[in-house]
Each structure stands twice: as C-alpha cells, then as structure tokens.
Amino acid sequence: SGSIQAHNDSLLKDHVRRFDFLRENIPAAEDIVSKLIAFQVAIPSWALGTGGTRFGRFSGPGEPGTLEEKILDVALLHQLNRSSGAISLHIPWDIPDHPDSIRSLADKYGIRFDAVNSNTFQDQPGQAQSYKFGSLQHVDKAVRKQAIEHNIEVIRHGVALGSNTLTVWLADGSCFPGQLNFRRAFLNTLESLQEIYAALPADWKMLVEYKAYEPNFYSTTVGDWGQSHLLASKLGNKAYTLVDLGHHHPNTNIEQIVSLLLMEGKLGGFHFNDSKYGDDDLTVGSIKPYQLFLIFNELVEGMDARKMDHALELAWMIDASHNVKDPLEDLLQSVEAILLAYAQALLVDRQSLYHAQQENDVVKAQEILQDAFRTDCRPLLAEARLRSGGALHPLGIFRDMQLRRTLTEQRGIHTVATGL
Ligand code: AOS
Ligand code: ZN
Ligand code: ZN
Ligand code: ZN
C-alpha cells in the first residue's frame, strides 16, 4: 500500500486536472463516483491461469496452482482496483477442502464468494455415469441422479464458504437431428433442476445460464433466454436467468433481452466477456464496447425503474479466458471496461431521452446515448479508486512493480492451475 501511495502521488497532479474538468461538466460526477465505489465484479477462478477452457493451454509463469493462490490473485487485483472484491468458483476445478481457512483467507482481503458453478459437462475420474449424452436431460435416470447430487454437493461447498448463489450451465443438447426428443429433454432437465432447487437454502438463488450452441451443434437444451426463462419461471422465485454475453447468435440484440428479463424480475446475473464470432470469451470491451454500454444503459434504466440496488441485486461476474495475455492484466482490463460502461450509462440524461422517445425524435435519442458513450469517463473511475485506496492506474502499477515477476519468484515458472 506504500507503493500504491507512491504510484498515486506520481500521477496525482495530472489526475486532479482531468477529474476537475469532468466535475465541472458533469453535475452527477460525485454521485457516479460513489456508485462506482460500491460496484464490485466477481473474478472467475478459472480465468486466473492462462488458457481458456478449450484446445491447448499455454501457461505463463507464476500462475496460481492452488485455491489459496487463486484467492491471493484476486486479492491482488482488488488491492489495485478496489472493484474485484469477489470470486466465483467452479467445482470440481476448485475443491475447498478446508472451507474455514479458505474463507478466512478471503475475509482477510475483503473477498466474498459469489456464485458457485457446478460442472456436469466433463466426466471426472472415477465417476460412475458418463455425461457424454447429457447430464440433467439424460434419458437414464441414474445419470440425471448423479448430476443432481453433484449440484447439491456444490451448494454444500457454497454454504460452507458463505456464497448464496448456484450457477448451472449445461452442455446438454444434441449434435444431430433425431438424437433426442426436445420435449423429453426439456422436461427431464426441468425435473432435475426442481430437485436441485428443492435443496437450495432459503436465501439462495439459482442462476440458469443459456448458450446457443457448443459443444452441441444441433440443439442445446437451455439454448436461449426463452428456454432459460421458462425453466426459471417454472422453478420459482429463487430461480433466475444468467446472461453470458458470448452465448448468443451473431448480432443478437442482447440489451433488449436484458431489458425484458429485468422487467419480469427474472434477470439474475451476468457472465461478462466479449466476442467477435461466438463464445470467444475475450476481454470485456475489447470488441464491442458500444454494445456493452447499451447493455448497461438498459441495466441502469431497468434497475432504477424497479428501485434495485445496482451493486447488490445482480451477480456481476466475468467469464473470459484465453492464451495470449497475462491473466491478471487481462482481468484488470475487463473490470475497467465494465465500470466504464456502467459510468457511461449513469451519464445518460434519462429525462431528455424519455422526452425524445415520446416525441419520436430519433436523432435526439441517438445523440443522447452517443454523447454519454463518447464521454471519457476514465477520470471518474480513477477518482473512485483513489477514494477507496486503490491505484490510479492499476495496469501501470502492476507493470511498474513487476508484480508477475514477484509471483513467479514465489511460485515458480511452471505452475499448473488446478482443474482444466
Ligand atoms: C460455458 O460456455 C459457460 O460460459 C459456463 O459459464 C462455464 O461454466 C464457464 O465458461 C467455465 O467453462
Ligand atoms: Zn458463462
Ligand atoms: Zn462465454
Ligand atoms: Zn461460455
């Protein structure tokens, strides 16, 4: 923290000039800064090692090899940006054998446990039944039962860590026409999810993630927001839809989906990432920052309409990972992109937009949105970090202090992140 202080001192004069300029021009600047301070984004444990979840992995030096080290990585991110105070675990990639010590380690750094993720898309060594033809949808009750029990086990791990959300993503579907009966697959999935739902503690949520295709390429049983929403509404008021930005067909209007799910009180959370083609899981904001802004625009508008707390009522998580960047630098970029889109959305003049819409003034409406999108909000983010004890420029300090080198000295060059 002495180093953060020194880093901030060296950049302070420049920052103050840029922040003052914005403050003079944006009446809501102070309000936006406080909202940014409150906003936290959960880091997925599987993104802390290089390599994504598909094809080869090209690991870098000093990557975390244990759950403890993953938590320390998130703690490091959080120290730098003060916006990464949560981690999302994937079971069994992460097995919290000693939940109490894991929990106190996380507590020590102000990290909470966001949604826990189950995994029935891979067979684990020694497992009795195979998920080759699906899990919760499977034609064989014994396979479904194994998958249900796994999910209940994940809830138990989550309870021990103080999480209150289960995310279920299913690879279930079919690769060829005729392979399965759509209705039976859906009903099996529903019945299985009902058994898992029945095991949720009272204050828990279940997030049902959908995905258009991959690994199945003819049908996916929870393939879009309609199917997820159908399941979530049949399950009950603890079940919600989770939107992963990469899980749509090209050019899908994701912001419209977000708006309607929010309207129905059925939006549970996000997996943020970016993509050019499919579920690319690229750094948030690297390809379509305007889409990200438009999504946040709907979020802010819809959450305000429902009087929801922006920071607390949805699960904000990243789901991105790939081979060519330092994972920690990549995550700093992703968190920054999310907060930037959020700040821009907070800037939108809602009153004027409403009037422009009522008057069918299309040009004005577009100008209002683009005016917000084209405002450089980076000084607002920097000010939020400064006030909460973080670094003015997290990526800069990460490089200046050669933090990856320190991690490599501590952990070694070849550390295999557990799991994948
Ligand atoms: C898979 O495509 C989904 O995005 C899931 O959220 C999955 O659990 C995560 O990406 C880890 O593989
Ligand atoms: Zn996802
Ligand atoms: Zn994705
Ligand atoms: Zn995905």
UniProtKB/TrEMBL annotation:
SUPFAM superfamilies: Xylose isomerase-like. Keywords: Isomerase, Manganese, Metal-binding. It comes from the Bacteria. GO terms for molecular function: isomerase activity; metal ion binding. Gene3D superfamilies: Divalent-metal-dependent TIM barrel enzymes. Signal peptide: none annotated. The keyword Transmembrane helix does not apply. This is Sugar isomerase. It comes from Flavihumibacter solisilvae.
